TrEMBL record:
PANTHER family: NUCLEOTIDE-SUGAR TRANSMEMBRANE TRANSPORTER
One Pfam family per UniProt: Nuc_sug_transp
Protein name: UDP-galactose transporter
The organism's place on the tree of life at top rank: Eukaryota
A single Gene Ontology CC term: Golgi membrane
Keyword line: Membrane, Transmembrane, Transmembrane helix
Single GO MF descriptor: pyrimidine nucleotide-sugar transmembrane transporter activity
Membrane topology of this protein: Multi-pass membrane protein
Major location (coarse): membrane
Subcellular localization, as worded in the UniProt entry: Membrane
InterPro entries listed in its UniProt record: Nuc_sug_transpt
Transmembrane regions listed in the UniProt entry: 12-32, 47-68, 75-94
């Protein structure tokens, strides 16, 4: 396999691994809480078409995030996250009468602040950290030392 095909394959495999882990956690949670109802009426009891739409949108969102990170960078994904927070809040206020609580404001400010700080100070691309004892830098191991 050439390098590009291997990277694309790795992205899909990573997404499948994450989905399997999420499925396992959701499965355990559902059966721990609602095992009797699931046994009696089935797992999809009470699902409406809108519920299925939300599931599809959430799954699509995860794939879109992976593609955004792959083809752009993490900073653009963080800006998209900030925009989605503001948009979702605005739409919730307009359509559902959402009342903004002080803890919501605190959480939103913390997330937006973290995104801003991350954007201003991106991580080292060369994986080095400055050494305070001299003008040298220390190379961090990337975990692939051939062992």
């Amino acid at each position: 396999l050439d390098q590009k095909l291997a990277q694309e394959f790795a992205m899909w495999v990573r997404n499948i691994h994450l989905a399997m882990f999420a499925f396992l956690v959701a499965f355990v949670g559902a059966y721990t809480k609602d095992s009797a109802a699931i046994a009696a009426k089935g797992f999809f009891q009470g699902y409406q078409p809108i519920t299925c739409l939300v599931v599809v949108l959430e799954a699509s969102g995860g794939i879109i995030v992976a593609l955004v990170i792959k083809y752009t960078d993490n900073i653009l994904k963080n800006f998209a996250t900030a925009i989605s927070i503001v948009t979702a809040t605005t739409l919730s206020i307009i359509f559902t009468g959402f009342v903004i609580h002080p803890l919501f404001v605190l959480g939103t400010v913390a997330v937006l602040g973290a995104i801003t700080i991350y954007q201003r100070n991106p991580p080292n691309k060369d994986n080095t950290i400055p050494c305070a004892c001299s003008s040298r830098t220390l190379k961090m191991s990337d975990g692939d030392d051939g062992k």
